[in-house]
Amino acid sequence: GELRSKLSIRAVVPVSLRPLEEMKSLGNQFGLIFVSLPIGLADTRDRLSEVSRRMNKLKRSFEPVVAMKIMAALGASPRKIQELVVRIFGTKGTAVLTNVPGPTQTLYMAGKPMSGFMFWVPQSARLGMGISILSYSEEVRIGVVTDAGLVPDPEAVTAGMEKEFHLMVRLAREALRRRA
Question: Can you say how many angstroms the Cα of residue 49 is from the centroid of all Cα atoms in its chain?
Fold first, then answer.
């Protein structure tokens, strides 16, 4: 429909809390942030800049650490409390969005190259959409899963994201050429 300048959706985004030097260690160490995505901004550069600003501010805040501590405490709490907190977290966002940087080189299994792989973000509570972004061997894959009652055409969301991604790549290449 018509673009509204103030329109935004809130995404629940897992944030790694593991120091870079420990990234190869096993186990999860992540918190959550709740970021408002300014989908009503018409200009791609403005949207990207604003999302980057918001994400950086939230990642530096106490929010992901507090969320991780709450999730850790939930593991030892009764099921009813777990369900309540999941429901509360679920009302704080419209979508779950996660970006996982995968291996940069092709992996092999039983001597055969893996052409790719994908994962899906867990859906819980009333979150209507899950968006998973995975890079692998110079490719980026985007997966969108939706509640059909809320978003009956996830293909349109994926197509829009692909179009936007290619536009951002073009803008980045133009910026690099201007700097050279």
Answer: 16
Share of the chain above pLDDT 90, in %: 14
Whether the Cβ atoms of residue 141 and residue 120 lie closer than 8 Å to each other: no
Q: How far is CA 138 from the centre of its chain?
A: 19
**Burial grade of 180 (CB within 10 A; 0-12, 13-18, 19 or more):** exposed
pTM of the full predicted structure? 0.77
- Of 65, 4, 14, 66, the C-alpha closest to 35 is 14
Tell me how far CA of residue 128 lies from CA of 122, 132, 140, 151, 176, in angstroms.
11, 14, 23, 7, 37
Question: By the 8 A CB rule, do 132 and 142 touch?
Answer: yes
What are the two backbone dihedrals, phi and then psi, of residue 30, each rounded to the nearest 5 degrees? -140, 150
